[in-house]
Amino acid sequence: MSAPTQPQVAIDPDKILAETEAAVAKIRSAREAIGKVIYGQETVVDRTLITILAGGHGLLIGVPGLAKTKLVETLGTVFGLNAARVQFTPDLMPSDILGSEVMDVGADGSRAFRFVPGPVFTQLLMADEINRASPRTQSALLQSMQEHHVTVAGVRHDLPSPFHVLATQNPLEQEGTYPLPEAQLDRFLLQIDVHYPDREAERRMLFETTGSNDAGAEQVLDGEGVQTIQRLVRGMPVGESVVEAILNLVRSARPGNGDAKLDEAVAWGPGPRASQSLMLAVRARALIDGRYAPSLDDVSELAEPVLKHRMALTFAARADGVTINDIIAGLKAKIG
Questions:
Q1: Which of 24, 207, 246, 313 could be cross-linked to 317 through a Cys-Cys bond (beta carbons 3.0 to 4.6 Å apart)?
Q2: Number of domains in the chain
Q3: ChlI/MoxR AAA lid domain: which residues (predicted)?
């Protein structure tokens, strides 16, 4: 007797097209709303949007004063998400992020534990200067970032949906910091490098932010709308050439694949989560640009932010002045 088959769900192309067009219009409005507050950081804004619409977490790296905190606050407003900010410091404890159990005493003298949720129970969590907290505290985010729930005293507590972590890190001041472990770095969909704005953007900033009226962001989406777009991203078709480019790129970044020069330079390379992240990211980038399928250009553009934090150089390579960017640039040149 044959096994029962699953009923086929009819796909309405017109409905999918209408939903995609509506999503593109919403994304365009969101970009415009963010642009009224954040100046001259178009690439950073786009990559942060890619991170959220792909359903992932982002690591923003840049010196102080480049509006990283302002960007996260603005995203929370524009996307209509509940947002919380945690300033990571050496004395921060895991319970300061996850929450803890407290003892309640009833009027009759009875006692019972009650869970008090921490700031991680939000839709958009900003982990400011995440590398300033101890490894024990950093690891408190691992389960929440991957599984979207936390376990306290053996009890599971689900996080709100959607749930995203945008962490910041200062690349210059390393005294008193704890490098993020590889397992946690791998949880970040993209590493987003925040650079100085160009001259014209900084000129605009001078006038817009030092006057009597400071521009504010307006809400464009809500949590349900964000999740709708995330589902559209996951449902986007991906051509075989793009899939092969993703596989070739990620696999060629690992030592032991026959490239002696790369084997000498790379201590360890990206795992399968990098392929998954790149697959989602190229879809999200295509949708943000108003396209209905990703291209090889998307793979090339997002190779660095996806791979950069998932690779490590050997001591010999670092001594020779080789950088991760150099390695990725060589791998990108082979795409297509």
A1: 313
A2: 2
A3: 263-328
- The H or E element spanning position 218 is none
Longest dimension (CA), the chain: 77
pLDDT in tens, 239-271: 999 999 999 999 999 998 878 889 899 999 999
Give dist(CA 273, CA 12) in Å, integer.
32
**DSSP string covering 145-195, please?**
HHHSEEEETTEEEEPPSS-EEEEEE-SS--TT--PPPHHHHTT-SEEEE--
pLDDT at 172: 74
pLDDT tens per residue, range 54-73: 999 999 998 888 888 889 99
331 and 276 assigned to the same domain: yes
Q: Map residue 223 onto helix, strand or coil.
A: helix
**Beta carbons of 103 and 153 less than 8 angstroms apart:** no
Q: What is the pLDDT of residues 173-218, one digit of tens each?
A: 666 688 888 888 999 999 999 988 889 888 888 888 777 676 678 9
Q: Which amino acid is at 314?
A: T
**DSSP for 64-120, written as a single string:** TTSSHHHHHHHHHHHTT--EEEEE--TT--HHHHHEEEEEEE-TTS-EEEEEEE-TT
Q: How far is CA 203 from the centre of its chain?
A: 29
Q: Print the domain residue range for 63.
A: 12-209
Q: What is the pLDDT of residue 9?
A: 46
> Are residues 241 and 169 part of one domain?
no
244 and 181 in a common domain = no
In the chain, the N- to C-terminal Cα span, in Å, equals: 48
Percent of the chain with pLDDT over 90: 61
Angle, vertex CA 194, rays to CA 192 and CA 196, nearest 5: 160
CATH label of the domain that carries residue 167: 3.40.50.300
